[in-house]
Automatic annotation (TrEMBL), chain A:
Annotated family: Belongs to the binding-protein-dependent transport system permease family. HisMQ subfamily.
Name of the protein described by the UniProt record: ABC transmembrane type-1 domain-containing protein
Keyword Membrane: yes
Location relative to the cell: Cell membrane
Keyword Transmembrane helix: yes
Region annotation (Disordered) ranges: 236-260
From TrEMBL, chain B:
Listed CDD domains: ABC_HisP_GlnQ
Protein name from the UniProt record: ABC transporter ATP-binding protein
UniProt similarity note: Belongs to the ABC transporter superfamily.
Primary subcellular site in the record, as a coarse category: membrane
Length: 260, 243
C-alpha cells in the first residue's frame, strides 16, 4: 500500500468524518460551548473581583488576590481540573449528583479568573489617576467612581487580551474529559477521540480540531478588529453614536452598572 | 445657582511622606468672592485646592465653609457641594459630552433621565456647546473640552468652584474663551478659588490675590495691592519674572 495514501486516509477519511459529524454538531459543539461560555462568564466576574481586590488599598484584600492568582496561574490546567473535579467530587455528588460539569466549569472558571483578573488589573491601572480624581471630585464614592468611570475604560483597553483568554478557555474546555463524561456529556474533543479510538483512524479527531478552529480563528480576528478599532478609532460615522456609554453589554455582572 | 458660601482655610498643613507641601496656609474667601492663587510651580497651589474638597486630607488645620468645619463631614457629600475644574479637563472619554454631565446628576442626585438631560443641555447652552451634546470629548478642542468640564461641575449646583490652572493646557487662542467663562461666573457671585498663571485675569477678576511660595501664603490682598505694591521681596521677584 502506498504509504502516502495511508497517511492521507489516517487524517482525511471522509467516511469516518461523516460518521462523527452528527454527534459533533448535536452533542459535542453544544457541550463545548456550555463549558467555555459558562466558565468565561464566571471567570470574568471573579476576575473583576480579583482585579479590584488586587489594587485595593487594603492589604487583606490585595494579598489573598495575589496568592490566588499565583496559584491558579502557576498550576497546570490539567492538574487543577483533576484536583477540583476529582477532589471535590464527593461533595459535588451530594449537591448535584454524578454530573462532572459543575466541577469542571468551576475548575475552568477558577483558572480563567486568575488570568482574566491580571488582564483586568492591568487595564484598570492603565486608566489615568486623574479620571478617578475627576469622578471623586463630582461626589462619587471610590467604588462608584471605579465602577462608572475607571473600570469601563480599563475594560475597553484590554478587550483584545480578554478575547484571547476566551480562546484559551475554548481549548481548555477539552480537559474536562479527565473527569469522566457520560455519552451525552461529551464535548468536541472527547467525541473525536472516541471515534478515533474505535476506528484507529484519526479523521474524527481532526474533524474535532476543525470545529475548534471554526470557533477560535474567527475570535482571533475579532481580537484584531477590536485592536485596530481601539488603535485607530471607530469607523468614521460622525461624532454621534448611539452605543451605550458604559460597557455593560460584554460582561454581565462584571462591569456592573446596569442601566437602571 | 445655589447660594454660594464663604470659604476659609486655617493653618492647613500637608506632607507627602517627609516632603512638607503645605506649611500652614491661611486663606479667606468671602461669600461670592473670587480668590486667585498665584505662585511658582511646586509652591503647593494645586495641593491646597485639593484640601478644600478633601481630595487630599490636611494633616493639620481646618477648612471652613460658612464658618463651619467640613473635616468631619462625609467627603463624598462635601464634594457634591464643591465643583472642581482641572488643568487637563479630565472629561470621561468613553462617554458623550452630555453623559459626562448627566452621569453625576443621575447616579448621585438620582434625577431621571429626562430631567438630567434637560439640565445638561441648559448648562451646555450656557457654555455655548449645545450643538456638541452627542460628541465624544476627543472630538472637541481643548477649549471646548474645558468648557464642558465647567458645565459638568456647574450642573451639580456647587456652592464653591475650584479651578486648577484651568487654562494652562490650552492653546493660546483658546484661553480667552475659557477665562471669559470663569470671569462670568465670578461676576454672578460664585465663590471661587482660581489657581492660575494668568496674571491679567487675576488682576481683573479676583477680589483677593494670594501669592504662595514653598507651601505658605506669603502675601494676600486686593489685586492692586498685590500687583502694584508688593511688599514681599519673593513676590516682587516672581512678578518681575511673569509680568
Amino acid at each position: 500500500m502506498d504509504p502516502l495514501r495511508t497517511l492521507w486516509e489516517t487524517f482525511f477519511d471522509w467516511e469516518s468524518m461523516r460518521e462523527a459529524l452528527p454527534e459533533m454538531i448535536t452533542v459535542g459543539l453544544p457541550n463545548t460551548l456550555i463549558l467555555a461560555v459558562t466558565a468565561a462568564l464566571l471567570g470574568s466576574a471573579l476576575g473583576i473581583v480579583l482585579a479590584v481586590a488586587g489594587i485595593s488599598r487594603t492589604r487583606w484584600l490585595r494579598w489573598p488576590a495575589r496568592v490566588y492568582t499565583d496559584v491558579f496561574r502557576g498550576l497546570p490546567a490539567a492538574a487543577t481540573i483533576l484536583l477540583i473535579g476529582v477532589g471535590l467530587a464527593p461533595l459535588g455528588m451530594q449537591v448535584w449528583g454524578p454530573n462532572p460539569y459543575p466541577l469542571g466549569i468551576l475548575a475552568l472558571s477558577l483558572i480563567a479568573s486568575a488570568y482574566i483578573g491580571e488582564i483586568f488589573r492591568s487595564g484598570i491601572q492603565s486608566v489615568e489617576a486623574t479620571q478617578l480624581e475627576a469622578a471623586r471630585a463630582l461626589g462619587f464614592s471610590w467604588g462608584e467612581a471605579m465602577r462608572r468611570v475607571v473600570i469601563p475604560q480599563g475594560i475597553r483597553r484590554i478587550l483584545p487580551a480578554w478575547v484571547n483568554q476566551l480562546i484559551a478557555l475554548i481549548k481548555d474546555s477539552s480537559l474536562v474529559y479527565f473527569l469522566g463524561l457520560l455519552a451525552s456529556q461529551r464535548e468536541l474533543f472527547r467525541i473525536g477521540q472516541d471515534y478515533a479510538a474505535n476506528t484507529g483512524n484519526q479523521s474524527a479527531l481532526l474533524l474535532a480540531g476543525l470545529f475548534y478552529l471554526a470557533l477560535t480563528v474567527p475570535l482571533t480576528h475579532v481580537v484584531n478588529w477590536i485592536d485596530g478599532r481601539l488603535r485607530h478609532g471607530r469607523p468614521a460615522t460622525g461624532p454621534a453614536d448611539d452605543d451605550p456609554d458604559d460597557l455593560d453589554l460584554a460582561l454581565p455582572g462584571a462591569a456592573g452598572g446596569n442601566q437602571r | 445657582m445655589s447660594r454660594s458660601v464663604s470659604l476659609s482655610l486655617r493653618d492647613v498643613h500637608l506632607a507627602f511622606g517627609r516632603h512638607q507641601v503645605l506649611r500652614g496656609v491661611d486663606l479667606d474667601v468671602a461669600q461670592g468672592a473670587t480668590a486667585c492663587v498665584i505662585g511658582p510651580s511646586g509652591s503647593g497651589k494645586s495641593t491646597l485646592l485639593r484640601t478644600v474638597n478633601r481630595l487630599l486630607e490636611p494633616d493639620r488645620g481646618d477648612v471652613l465653609l460658612d464658618g463651619r468645619s467640613v473635616l468631619r463631614d462625609d467627603p463624598d457629600a462635601l464634594r457634591q457641594r464643591i465643583g472642581m475644574v482641572f488643568q487637563q479637563f479630565n472629561l470621561f472619554p468613553h462617554m458623550s459630552v452630555q453623559r459626562n454631565i448627566t452621569l453625576a446628576l443621575r447616579r448621585i442626585r438620582k434625577l431621571g433621565e429626562d430631567e438630567a438631560a434637560a439640565i445638561a443641555r441648559e448648562h451646555l447652552d450656557r457654555v455655548g456647546l449645545a450643538a456638541k451634546a452627542d460628541a465624544r470629548p476627543a472630538h472637541l478642542s481643548g477649549g471646548q473640552q474645558q468648557r464642558v468640564a465647567i458645565a459638568r461641575a456647574l450642573a451639580m449646583q456647587p456652592q464653591v468652584m475650584l479651578f486648577d490652572e484651568a487654562t494652562s493646557a490650552l492653546d493660546p487662542e483658546l484661553v480667552k474663551g475659557v477665562l471669559a467663562l470663569i470671569a462670568d461666573l465670578s461676576a454672578q457671585g460664585m465663590t471661587m478659588v482660581v489657581v492660575t498663571h494668568e496674571m491679567g485675569f487675576a488682576r481683573e477678576v479676583a477680589d483677593t490675590v494670594a501669592f504662595m511660595d514653598a507651601g505658605v501664603v506669603l502675601e494676600a490682598g486686593e489685586p492692586a495691592a498685590v500687583f502694584e505694591s508688593a511688599r514681599h521681596p519673593r513676590l516682587r521677584r516672581f512678578l518681575s519674572q511673569v509680568l
